[in-house]
Give the backbone structure.
Amino acid sequence: MDTATFATGCFWCTEAKFQQLKGVKKVVSGYSGGKVANPTYKQVSTGTTGHAEACNIIYDPAQITYDELLAAFFVAHDPTQLNRQGNDVGTQYRSAIFYHNAAQKQKADYYIGKLNTEKAYKSKIVTQVAPYTAFYKAEDYHQNYFNQNKGSNPYCKYVIQPELDKFKKVFKNKLKD
């Protein structure tokens, strides 16, 4: 098993998307990239802790590669929006890749450079590439949020579900059965 740590805005959305991929064994929502130890959701929501809402994606490299996870990362959100995703605004919603080793850093930098050179997006990618230092698991009610709340929460229905449907179309050959 290996771990990728990505921030693509709201961790509920990130978790719901990456849970769909073959080879992804577990997705844990939490906080990374900040200066406060053991932050709470309330603290991170203020934008003052330096943390981003992020997910630890635990995966089997024999089933899905880090390169494939990076491809999913760049489809899962808009990496050209600085400190926001849609209506979620603040540094806690930034686009970030927290690399665990030199190979992950090299691949992240490579793909960002390639996508910018190819002008894959209308604007330049602003994704932060930073070393993984610490990850703090979010409160239990944030874990598996979409699956537990899709029938009752309007955010799940009107924000996450349409994004998830689009993601599934792109990665239809990589989805779990």
Q: What stands out?
A: Strands lie at 2-8, 24-32, 52-59, 84-85, 88-89, 95-99, 128-131, 135-137. The radius of gyration is 15 Å. The chain is about 35% helix and 25% strand. The mean pLDDT is 96.
